[in-house]
Specification:
about 350 residues, alpha/beta, Aspartate Aminotransferase, domain 2, binds pyridoxal-5'-phosphate
Length: about 350
């Protein structure tokens, strides 16, 4: 606390990310990173960009990356916004698109950064409780809304709302921006990814936010993007260009472009994570855990006989990190990132030992 702080700083309640401890041989299943490294083509592109040209500012518009993402999704470049991680993209979204007279709506159990951005930008909000089975019910959003945001699949539950329901929500609120935060959507289906990007050309009030941190194994590079009607994107550009001309550096732009170009690597790793998730769910159910059906690279699990906080502490003593949120309704749940089969096996073996 300092007398030099502005009033808004006194009142902030900052987001607390999952720990990144420096422990050897850690099995890190607490922050939903990808257990596989980035595509070798990404690393090669970053190396190739590491040269003399770093003396120059990057392209403030990151056009090469916007072009790549637009082409990947069959859209126009004017429908794409890019930022320094989707957390930064979301910050611009909250400031530029979600602050209205009526409150912003989001679920009571969701990404805990949302209320933090509301505090930073003075956005009034109302939470809408998930149903008892932890699903989002679109009917519950039939109330005055300045805007709506939630992740799909939701975090930390992993539950996926079908696209038809999102479409119903968009029709229910034609005059409100609906933001779908798709950090985990690439783990949502093998044959088809259930992304709301398929709807952006039909709904000018839809904004889809994605990240390269999860399915593309680039949490350390900090690249996220938003896709929507060009007027929404222009609003975000106005905020960005009033804040930082160059949120993406040269290496990030080069690496992100290469990540989209290596589609085969993306497909292989996401399919491996999906397969490991299905196995982990089976193994944990066999131990008596109840698990919310997950379309993400994590599972949300509780055990009827074992306290979640105690389990998290005991796992930590074995150098296995999982995430426990000491929050109403979910304090008996653990959020466990899907690791390699070896890491998931070590987790299951440790739990088996506790339970004998
Ligand atoms: C991980 C995550 C993000 C942030 O991703 P970055 O691009 O790494 O900033 C955004 N939303 C949700 C729901 C997430 O889980």
């Amino acid at each position: 606390m300092s007398r030099f702080w502005s009033r808004v700083v006194h009142d902030l309640v900052p987001y607390v990310p999952g720990e990144q401890p420096k422990i050897a041989n850690l099995i890190k299943l607490n922050t939903n990173e990808n257990p596989y490294g980035p595509s070798p083509q990404v690393l090669a592109a970053i190396r190739a960009a590491t040269d003399e040209t770093l003396k120059l500012y990057p392209d403030p518009n990151a056009s090469a990356l916007k072009q790549t993402i637009a082409a990947y999704h069959g859209l126009q470049m004017e429908q794409v916004f890019v930022g320094n991680g989707s957390d930064e993209v979301l910050a611009f979204v909250f400031q530029g698109l979600l602050k209205h007279d009526a409150p912003l709506l989001f679920p009571d159990i969701t990404y805990s950064f949302y209320p933090v951005y509301c505090g930073l930008y003075g956005v009034s909000y109302r939470t809408v409780p998930l149903r008892d089975d932890f699903t989002i019910a679109v009917d519950d959003y039939a109330q005055p809304a300045g805007a709506i945001i939630f992740p799909n699949p939701n975090a930390p539950t992993g539950h996926l709302l079908p696209l038809a329901q999102i479409e119903a929500l968009l029709q229910q609120h034609p005059d409100a921006v609906v933001v779908i935060d798709e950090a985990y959507v690439d783990f949502g289906g093998i044959d088809e990814i259930p992304s709301a990007i398929a709807l952006v050309n039909r709904y000018p009030n839809l904004l889809v936010v994605q990240t390269l941190s999860k399915a593309r194994s680039l949490a350390g590079l900090r690249v996220g993007f938003a896709i929507g009607h060009k007027d929404l994107i222009e609003g975000l550009e106005r905020v960005k260009n009033s804040f930082n001309s160059y949120p993406l550096d040269r290496l990030a732009i080069a690496g992100a472009v290469a990540a989209f170009e290596d589609r085969a690597y993306f497909e292989t790793t996401r399919n491996k994570v999906i397969a490991s998730r299905e196995q982990l769910v089976k193994d944990m159910q066999a131990l008596g855990f109840e698990i919310i059906p997950s379309a993400a690279n994590f599972i949300f699990a509780r055990h009827p006989q074992h306290d979640a906080a105690t389990l998290a502490t005991k796992l930590r003593q074995r150098s296995i990190l999982v995430r426990h949120f000491k929050l109403p309704r979910i304090e008996q749940y653990l959020r466990i990132t899907v690791g390699t089969d070896g890491q998931c096996g070590a987790l299951v073996d440790a739990l088996k030992e506790f339970f004998v």
